[in-house]
Amino acid sequence: MTFKRLPSLTKTVLEQLKPLKLHRKDSQTQVSHFKHVSSYLIKDELLSSVLEASGLKNAYDNEDMTILEMSPGSGANSIALYNYFQPKRHVLLEPRKAFFSHISSLTKNTDGRMVLHERDGYSWATYSELYQKHPEYFYQQTSKEVRLGPNRRFLFTGHLPAGTPGILLGTQFVMHLIQRDWLGILGRVRLLLWMSPELAYILLACNGYKSRSSLSVLRELMCQIRVLAAPVEFMDTLKKGYLHSSAVTYPVMKTISTTDEAFAPSANPLVLIDISCTSYQSDVPLDILEYVIQSLLVQKSQPLKETVSRLCPGAENLVPLLKKRGVDIQESSVTASAKSLENIARIYHKWPFRPKVMTSTLLEKP
Amino acid sequence: MRSTTRFRNASSRFQRFARLNSARPFVVTILRQQSPFRRLYASTSTTKYTVEQSVERNAPPQWLSFKGFNGNEEKVPVIQACLNAGDISRALQILQKTIGHSTTDEAVHLVHVFLKHSVSCVPVEEVISYYEQLLKTRRFRADAISYAILCQAAMVQEKASNSSFPILRKLVRNWRRMNHSLSEILMVGSLVFSKKEASVLAELFRLPLHVYSGEERDKMQLADLYDSISKNFANAQPDFVSQDQLLSVKTRNIGLDMLKNTLSAIQANSKDQLEIDRAALDIGEEADPYNAARQRLMEKKALESSIAEWRHSYNEILRRGENPPHSRSLNALLYVWYEKLEALIQEEFRQIEDSENNKASPYKSRTRAEYAQYLKLLSPSKLAAITVLEMLTFVTNKRYCTGVRSTFALMSVGRAFEKEYFSEQLQKIEAEGNLPKSVDSKKLFSSPRLFNSFVKKIRDNEDNGIVQSSLYQPWSPNILVKVASVTVSLLINSAKIRDSALDPETKSTVFQDSSAFQHGYRYLAGRKVGVIVAHPVLYDILASELSGAHLPPYRLPMLVKPRPWLMWNSGGYYYSSESVLRFKESHEQLLYLKAASDSGQLKDLLEGLTALGNVGWKVNRKVYDMLVKIWNTGESFLSIPSANTTLDIQEMPEKSIDPSARAEWLRMLKERSLDFASQHSQRCEFNYTLEIAKAFLHETFYFPHNVDFRGRAYPIPSHLHHVNSDFCRSLLIFAEGKPLGEEGFQWLKVQLANLFGKNKSTIQERIDFVDNHLQDIFNSVDKPLDGEQFWTKADDPFQALAVCFEIADAIRSGDPSSFISHVPVQQDGTCNGLQHYAALGGDPEGAREVNLEPSNRPNDVYAAVAARVISILKKEAAAGDPMAELLKDRVTRTVIKQPVMTNVYGVTYVGARAQIEKQLKLQEDIPKDLLRDASAFLAKRVFQSLRALFKRAHEIQDWLADCAALIAHSVPEEALKQKELDKMTAVVWTTPLNLPVVQPYRKFPSKQITTNLQSVYLEDPDSNAPVDPRKQTTAVPPNFIHSLDATHMFMTCLKCKKRNITFVSVHDSYWTHAASVAELNGLLREAFVELHSRDILGDLKREFEDRYKNHYVHNHYPVDSPAGQYLLQQGATAKRSVVKGWAPLTFPEVPERGTFDIRSVLHSQYFFS
């Protein structure tokens, strides 16, 4: 079957879509996370050029490829991806009635390759139900394929909601990646996500970044990340987030600059991130790793000898042990390398006195 | 030579005296019966007492050897003659003339002669009055011999009348009040008292015999008594031990023996050591001096006692050749921590000195200077002991099972330092003799004039140090945390605990010394907070070891009636500065309270609080034994957690697309971990409660009370008190028992039925319920753990068991009506908040639902609301609403009970939804994803039904909220003139008992304080913070109703006091003896009618109008409203019939009252039942 490219969005369509401001009084939208003004791409040309530069085509077996896209909005993102990858299947999840008819018309010219579901990609139930009804959408990697690299037949993409819901959802997506089994079944999946710069900073942060979080460290340890498109000032702001004293260099990436005009309805441009997990698998159980990193980063600027002793009652005895194993305990958790923090977690995990209950994960009773 | 002459003279005088008496046979008769000198006399007469006495005393007593002065020795026979002739006033006249103003030994001796003769002639009370007259007019000092004579006479006289020795008690009390000891009387009284009398005296006043040397005991003729007590005690010991292990453990704080031994080791010059029975001064008319002494010691020396106990355990362990820091003995461990901490604090003191002498770095000196002067107010030893004790209390509170916020911990420790310092100062004042003499609270409270003059007196004397806490400025929060952070951080660094674990690699057990407390940070609700967490091993030790509850004295019940509340800061414990009001750093509340207290307006409230504190309690021995048995099994039973709680962690679920499965697993994991930690703490808490109960097992004890800012009363001690769990309540009975009588026995049955949740049945049905379960009750009593365990099916099982014991005992006594019952019987209001609203609004429909109106069976407000909700749902379901369809058959009384109950106390829609969701979750057939929407849907219908059912109640709630909103947004005229438009006005009202209720909700700015432990953020209550209008508004309805229910409680309490009925309360649950329930029921109804016969809302409106008369509110007013007219007159311009600006504050009209006649309550059987 010959592949028919989708035409770019016309000015008329854009004019129709632009005034669709999704604010909290939008009676058509009942979904809570859309109460925030979530931006979406309106210039598919921009993404097309980004994709061309990315070389991602080679990472997929196009003929068997499925793209699962959440919240396509205007459809510009869908058009660019569809045209670039020419996938076997492109599944769109869009619950907002404002976009529904427009996207529905897009799918008509795709010979059934592009399918629209009036479902919300923000809800995890959507994926469970979709898997039950359409298992053909999901390609599960074999263990051999997992070892070799990211899933070549499945790509997840879309716009993350704005504000906290977007950060929370993005975090959950990335945590799935860190577990090396996206959606629990698909193995190493690549995500191509439009997100707010705030979430992008968290994901990109390395040692030396002032607002480094446990997600940053886990990502650093187990995921590879690329910024494919970002506003001009994005990298400068990222640089400013690093400690002046830090010897660590921030990641330098070639990105394509985005402009305000490429997005609607909000003028805040989004960042396109390409993220997938690496072949590295830590021998430290994830919950321990997460707990230790989280606890050490509570006091970012304190030296490790201080913060380690606050891991649990009796943890002051870990300090000499760490010293013995070559951990630089004078370093702070914000400047320590991800590997160094992982090493601390490893030592903690094997420490016979480690308590069963990780107190800092518990909340104080009201 | 001189002594020989004196002896000869004395001998001849003695013979003359004897001859004189023997010449008058009628006197002899009297003397044989009454005179304290009967043995003395008998030795010279022919009575059969002679042999024994002559062996004891082969010489005439020296004190009778009248030396004579100025030739007046001849007056002795004259005085004797007058007395023998019954002319006592003549004898007194001659005596006064003879001795003049002399206070020489001779004069004193003459007085002795006068006394010994007069007690044989006239009643002892009369002699006492002569003696007092003599002391007053001749400026005599009272002496032990005179008191011995009088005591002996009183004893003989009162023994004959079989009374409880009131005269003797009064005499001893007076003697002690003059700073003397009973032992002084007994020492000299060996010449006056027989052995038996001395023993009676010692036992009556519970003289601590063990504190005296053998020689002293011999001198007091108490050696035999001491031997017999020691023997009995020794015999009793094995019995105690065999009963349960708990009893074998020595108790702290209570046992005088323990205190005495420990004190002597600590304070060589302690006054209390020597004058233990003298310490019982001014505790009140009924005070038992022995208990009074113990209470004072407990309050004054608890810290030293704790330390001594720790040291004792430490030495024991050393003696056994073990290493105390590595032992699992809590006491030994505490001693190690204490010692280390004390040394570190001493070092800190040295550093402070260096700083003061400019030897330290300027920065460190500056930091130290901020807290140094406060830290040095207490000794290192006390600072160390308090820190250790306070930190332990967090471990035993299940609320802090996963750690306590550092700020809270530091504030608590700081407050404990402050308390101890004030206590020290009080003791100092007392030592200087500046404490006020005892007050007769009965008299004071019965006379408003007397009360006011007393209040004025102590207020005037504040500057002289008579009123304790006015002397001392409370420490600021800044100081509290700074001082505490020094010792807490030192404790965290020094307190170690031995931990063991299995090395996974070597498979051998490894040990390490870990910090017992760890300071860390964690994110709570998105905010980084500092927390202090105890080591799990410490929890293990505390949950298992029965080593005595380590609590500061102000957290324990009292051994004597609490100090009566006479001022806002004068009452409760003896050496602790308690406030009558529990307030949180609100200076505004304090100012209002002080003003009300100073003007004597709080008399009724204080009297009520005093009465609540005066109720004596005892530990219910049967329940205690049962609980100990359960506890010792270590197994989980009802609310008692297991000793071997294990954390059951399930495997992570299989991978799935939906991460919520993992999230659910994580949530469950957290929940279980939290439960695990909570159970650990809970066991520690149970342990503490049992330990306190054990310590007070053979005591009568009291709970001093104070009130929250609405006036609701709470006991001050923690852990063991009646406003606590079922477990705690079951352990408590009234110290005083009352025969059940016919009615009382029935009420006891009603109490049991109520505990089984039968409070919606008629009284007869409740009685029948118990009658039908008599076999179950006997089975519960005979085999509480091995039988059918009927009692465990009750809503409050442990209390039910206590009542089962009482009922069984009453029946088995053969005559239940004369059975002496101690178990409290509770009468609870039906949704008491709504009762007050219905009464305020005169709402007939509401009144019926909450049983203000008489009816044949109790109405159930929850069932009524549920019925309404169901009817709404059915209508909506019929109209096609799927949610109504889902819920219509699922709504039960239980589902809506909590939101209905809390609605009146201001539960929000979100809160109600959560309460309903919790209940709906239990009905497992509702789809999970619908739960939240279903709960929200139902919450709306519940609120709607409540509004319809209690229309007037909601009108009143709205009116109160409207008034509060206006007040909170108002500005006083002066402020308006100065353009100070911050909203500073809090809502204030006065309860019918004159307590000013000040809502403390303000937006206090936070202040960062750097401490040795961490930086803490504290609200600055000293700052002029604007009010929080939203909180001021939403909190008024519940706070107002709480102030009313508190008033009702106090009014009932005062009525009970007048009628001599035992009364305590848990807010709207009133407790008394079974026999007094009927009377209580009458009184509480009278009080309710009395309260609601006033125009409460009208009075409130008038008070608001008066209090806020010069306040202005900025608003948009309709032009035709009075405010609009006012603004137009002021030159404002109207837009669209509305005018904007500052207009004088006016309040909306009080909602119209309905037709309900409040007097119906008097006949409503189920109003409280």
Automatic annotation (TrEMBL), chain A:
Family: Belongs to the class I-like SAM-binding methyltransferase superfamily. rRNA adenine N(6)-methyltransferase family.
GO molecular function terms attached to this record: RNA binding; rRNA (adenine-N6,N6-)-dimethyltransferase activity
Entry's transmembrane regions: none
Compartments, as annotated in UniProt: Mitochondrion
Keywords: Methyltransferase, RNA-binding, rRNA processing, S-adenosyl-L-methionine, Transferase
PANTHER family: DIMETHYLADENOSINE TRANSFERASE, DIMETHYLADENOSINE TRANSFERASE 1, MITOCHONDRIAL
GO biological process: positive regulation of transcription by RNA polymerase II; transcription initiation at mitochondrial promoter
Lineage: Eukaryota, Fungi, Dikarya, Ascomycota, Taphrinomycotina
Residues holding S-adenosyl-L-methionine: L41, E94, D120
EC numbers: 2.1.1.-
GO CC, any one term: mitochondrial DNA-directed RNA polymerase complex
InterPro entries linked to this entry: KsgA/Erm, rRNA_Ade_diMease-like_C, SAM-dependent_MTases_sf
Role played: Mitochondrial transcription factor that confers selective promoter recognition on the core subunit of the yeast mitochondrial RNA polymerase. Interacts with DNA in a non-specific manner.
EC class of the enzyme, as a word: transferase
Protein name per Swiss-Prot or TrEMBL: rRNA adenine N(6)-methyltransferase
Main location: mitochondrion
Organism: Schizosaccharomyces japonicus (strain yFS275 / FY16936)
UniProtKB/TrEMBL annotation, chain B:
Organism encoding this protein: Schizosaccharomyces japonicus (strain yFS275 / FY16936) (Fission yeast)
Catalytic activity: RNA(n) + a ribonucleoside 5'-triphosphate = RNA(n+1) + diphosphate
Keywords in alphabetical order: DNA-directed RNA polymerase, Mitochondrion, Nucleotidyltransferase, Transcription, Transferase, Transit peptide
First-tier enzyme category under EC: transferase
Protein name: DNA-directed RNA polymerase
Lineage of the species this protein comes from: Eukaryota, Fungi, Dikarya, Ascomycota, Taphrinomycotina
Stored SUPFAM superfamilies: DNA/RNA polymerases
InterPro entries membership: DNA-dir_Rpol_C_phage-type (IPR046950), DNA-dir_Rpol_phage-type (IPR002092), DNA/RNA_pol_sf (IPR043502), RNA_POL_N_sf (IPR037159), RPOL_N (IPR029262)
Signal peptide: none
Compartment(s): Mitochondrion
Pfam families: RNA_pol, RPOL_N
Any GO molecular function: mitochondrial promoter sequence-specific DNA binding
GO cellular-component term (any): mitochondrial nucleoid
Gene Ontology biological process terms in this record: DNA replication, synthesis of primer; mitochondrial transcription; transcription initiation at mitochondrial promoter
Domain of life: Eukaryota
Database matches in PROSITE patterns: RNA_POL_PHAGE_1, RNA_POL_PHAGE_2
Family: Belongs to the phage and mitochondrial RNA polymerase family.
DNA-directed RNA polymerase N-terminal domain mapped to chain residues: 293-614
Role description: DNA-dependent RNA polymerase catalyzes the transcription of DNA into RNA using the four ribonucleoside triphosphates as substrates.
Enzyme nomenclature, EC number: 2.7.7.6
